[in-house]
Structure formats: structure tokens, C-alpha cells
Amino acid sequence: MLETTQQLRRLLQGPEMIVAPFVYDCLQAKLAEQVGFAAVYMTGFGTAAARGFPDLGLLTMSEMVENVRAIAHAVKVPVICDADTGYGNPINVWRTVREYEEAGAAALHIEDQVWPKKCGFLAGKQVIPLEEMVPKVRAACDARRDQNLVIIARTDALAVNGWDDVVRRCHAYREAGAALIFVDGIRTVDDLKEYASRLSGLPLLYNGALLPVRELGQYGFRVNIHTSTLMASYVHFRDTLRQLKETGRLDLPITGHLFAELIELMGVPQTEALSKKYAI
């Protein structure tokens, strides 16, 4: 079987846009793989939330790498990962890439925000100068042992400086070696169309769900990391808890078939077979 970095490179060269749903734990990743997604996206927002923190730069690189390793070892599909700002200067970025690569990431993105960063859709973001970000992109590319590891350069400059600066940054990051370009903070369909138009010709990643996947594919994006799965998991679990608290029951039928599906997904039969194989 191909390494996940090679799998992702082949997907990027194919005709279809890659849709990678947001996941923050192994169960979500295994479900995404089971239903047929060719890649998953390890969300920094979700990783922080799962540990009880807001996405405000409070998690360390080692905490993020721990989650990369868990998810990458749980599935066979490529895992695209949030690596925040790279956690420092170009030397820190170098180490971050080495750690993510060793943990099993197929791709990672670093952003040009000031540290501590903020979620890309929060107000009050600040970005570092382009001249400081370009060496970080170069360091990320140089640090790879596997040249198939996909380095993604993200800019958060749209809300801060506007489109002209975004375009300037994106071309500079691409020239520095980034395989994909990621403009975050796309809030409207008009923003989305502007993104595709102004940066036409660059390999682009889109974060969001403003349009159905089929329509998004028409705009030339190579990757869509689909944030709706994160929000759906939050809403459904919240509503389930509310129903249980308010009514004392759940509408979901907890059947033997459902439990069997879950234990199959988690590999119980395979683990039990190994246990029998090595029984004394």
C-alpha cells in the first residue's frame, strides 16, 4: 500500500477536488474513512475544544503532535493537519515539520498569524510581515525527509489587509515551495468567488461549506476541508444530551445491530482473533 503522503499527492494530481471532513479524534476519523472519504483533516479548533480550550494558541506543538499520531495511526487514508503558526520562528517550524512527519501526517499547514494565533473566523487577528513568513515556508519545505509530505501555506491577511496583500502573499508562499495555498476567513459566496478568481492558477485549499461540494469543485479548488462535520457533531451531541436531560429518554434506537457496527468499526473482531492466535 502506498504511503499516505504518496496517496495524497496522487489525489492532488487527479481530476476531483479532495473533500476532507474535520475530525478531532480517532473514532471520527475511522467513521470518515469507513463511509468513503479519501482523506481527513485534523482540526486545530476541534483538537483544542476536545481538550477544553478555545482555539487561541493555547495548545502546544507536542499536544497537537500527540493527536496527529493517534489519528494517523487509526486510519489508512491521508491526514491533513493544522500546525498553527509552526510554533515559532523558522527553526521552530523545522522541528514542527519533523515531528508532524514522524507522527504520520500526510500534509500540514502553517499560517502567517502573530502568535498566539486565533481561529481564522475570529475578529482581531494580526499577521506577521510577508518577509517573516516566507522563510518559515522555506524551512517547512526543507525540513521534510519525505518530499511527498504536502506543505500548505495559509494566510489570514484577508480580514487584516484585504485582497491585494493576500494575493501578494499567496504568490510569495507558492514561490517559497508551498504545494497548496490556503486563504482562511472566507465568509461569503462573494468572498469564495473572489478567492477562486484572484488566485486562479494556484493550487488552492478552501475551508468551509458555503456551497455544496459539487458546486465548489467548479471553482477549481484542489482541497475542501469541510468544517460542517465539526459543527454537526457538536449540534447533534448537544441536542441528544438535552433530550436525555429533559425527557429521560432518547429517540435513537440503541439496537444490537448498532452496537455490532460500532465494535466492528473499532476492530474488536480482529483484536479477538489475534488474542486467540497467541493464546497459550
Oligomer type: single chain
The poorly predicted ranges are: none
List the secondary-structure elements in sequence, H or E. Answer: HEHEHHEHEHEHHEHEHEHHH
Counted by DSSP, the helix tally is: 13
Supply the CATH architecture: Alpha-Beta Barrel
Strand content: 5-15%
User: How many β-strand stretches?
Assistant: 8
Q: Based on helices, strands and strand pairing, what is the structural class?
A: alpha/beta
Radius of gyration computed on alpha carbons: 20 Å
Assign the CATH superfamily. Answer: Phosphoenolpyruvate-binding domains
* Global shape: globular
Q: How does the major sheet shape up?
A: 8 strands, parallel, barrel
Task: Determine and state the CATH class.
Answer: Alpha Beta
- In round numbers, the mean pLDDT is 95
Which sequence of strands runs across the widest sheet?
Answer: 1-2-3-4-5-6-7-8
